[in-house]
Amino acid sequence: MHTRRIGDAEVSAIGLGAMPMSIEGRPDEARSLATIHAALDAGVTLIDTADAYHRDAHEVGHNETLIAKALASHDRGKDVLVATKGGHLRPGDGSWTLDGSSRYLKEACEASLRRLGVEAIGLYQFHRPDPRVPYAESVGAVRDLLDEGKIRMAGISNANPDQIRQANEILGGRLVSVQNQFSPAFRSSEAELRLCGELGIAFLPWSPLGGISRARELGSAYAPFARVAEARGVSPQRVCLAWMLAKSPVVVPIPGSSRPETILDSLAASELALTAQEIAELDAV
């Protein structure tokens, strides 16, 4: 497994997005644990989660608890950087709401600490801007958590270029990651990716394969990915992740998975070196 950097941490070039194991349509716990353990066996050292990754209102933090259980039962669990997030909420009816207040983020971080069973969270990210709360207040709360030693590294998610610059300034140059949606179907974060490359900040594409419901359709929806995949004898999903890795050394994709076979296919993308011609063909999608 090739590696990349997030702040001062060296992590696997591809991480595991754990959200599908906790929201609607999730598998049973045994399969989820098997998926996480398969990823660890293959060399994954980055797992992405959030307190809002749950299905029902009474089980906030379901995904964090699941990850903590999986890591505690594997001999490589201590080598993993767990990236979690706060500021998004799920009332339990399938909707998503926001609370970017300083009070809430600090309370959410404390709860995440308890669920993960750690003294300091490896990477804590402000999940999504709350239009009712000044962005400086939200990021300021993350800065306070960093200064207090509650978190080791700080990141933001769903941010635009101005917010990236503002967050980095508020954090005193300590912003280590930006997690935005990016995939063949969603290319509007190109500017944020470029800015992260300029600043040396890790860019973590979420839903890099197009989302849970669309990942299997990637090859049929985007012909160039299917053509390259057929020529290489691999899946279009693997080609997609290899394309992302080729875009910039700061990119660390976090494909979601709830099956051992799908995460293992995704991880193999770190070994797939695309040619300049193939990359140009995929960039043109």
Automatic annotation (TrEMBL):
Q: Which residues cross the membrane?
A: none
NADP-dependent oxidoreductase domain location: 14-285
Keyword vocabulary terms for this entry: Oxidoreductase
Note the Pfam families from the entry: Aldo_ket_red (PF00248)
Which terms in the GO cellular component ontology are assigned? cytoplasm
One GO MF term: oxidoreductase activity
Gene3D superfamilies associated with the record: NADP-dependent oxidoreductase domain
Which InterPro entries does the UniProt record give?
A: Aldo-Keto_reductase (IPR050791), NAD(P)_OxRdtase_dom_sf (IPR036812), NADP_OxRdtase_dom (IPR023210)
Q: Which residues form the signal peptide?
A: none
Q: What is this protein called?
A: Aldo/keto reductase
